From TrEMBL:
It comes from the Bacteria. NADP(+) binds at A68, V69, L70, P71. One of its GO terms (biological process) is L-proline biosynthetic process. The gene is proC. It comes from Pedobacter soli. This is Pyrroline-5-carboxylate reductase. GO terms for molecular function: pyrroline-5-carboxylate reductase activity. Residues 160-261 form the Pyrroline-5-carboxylate reductase dimerisation domain. InterPro entries: 6-PGluconate_DH-like_C_sf, NAD(P)-bd_dom_sf, P5C_Rdtase_cat_N, P5CR_dimer, Pyrroline-COOH_reductase. NADPH binds at N55. Belongs to the pyrroline-5-carboxylate reductase family.
Amino acid sequence: MKKIAIIGSGNIGLSLAKGLVKANYTTTKNITLTRRNTANLYKFAQERYKVTANNAEAAAEADVIILAVLPQQLNLVLDEIQPAINPAKHLVISVISGVSCAAVREKLDSDVQIIRAMPNTAIAIGQSMTCIASDNASPQNMEDVTRMFETVGSVVKINEDLMTSATALCACGIAFFLRGIRAASQGGVEIGFHADEALKMAVQTAKGAADLLLLHGTHPESEIDKVTSPKGCTIAGLNEMEHNGFSSSLIKGIKLSALKAGNLYTKES
């Protein structure tokens, strides 16, 4: 099994590590987790993950390096690991918003293969929607990374120029859909349910709606048509929401998030 170094073991990095082990993709002893404060990784050290604050050492010993730090921390990390990079050995995976493969390669080595991956926080329960892209990775490495992230959800391969869009739709999108569920539960309270009852009903209804599309492979409108009857209560509610900009505001929010995601990283930061 390949040795994996996760540089910056926050929520995403740790969830991926756990998913890889749970799916038998690799074992804890083949994963190195780095963090400035290793005390936060005590539980993982007890489970025989290798834990260190030395990013360069972790990179040197790994075959696959996963960059999972904040955009503003990236340049410092790349400077730390650059002397350890061997293009013939290393595959680098970046899960950092707004950072191109070329920008990472410029700091490391012009020949190293870079794959970008954009998971979301549902990775913690194995339900991530992860998009991956590269401008120079081999088909075999792309396949390996696809299998890696399939241990924690679904994977779609896209062109790299769509990665900031994927950030907005899939990563930021978790928050958008959660806000919709919260609003639905608040509406439930308005019409008579206790808050805990309304939230439970809104959550399960949202889950059912998503599963209808996933399991049937249908378009949302076809499922909506099954619920809306002439002069009925569903179409009345839908039209009221649309008159108040429901779809338009969601579309505008996604577009603005995509714009912001593209500006999170600068080479000088």
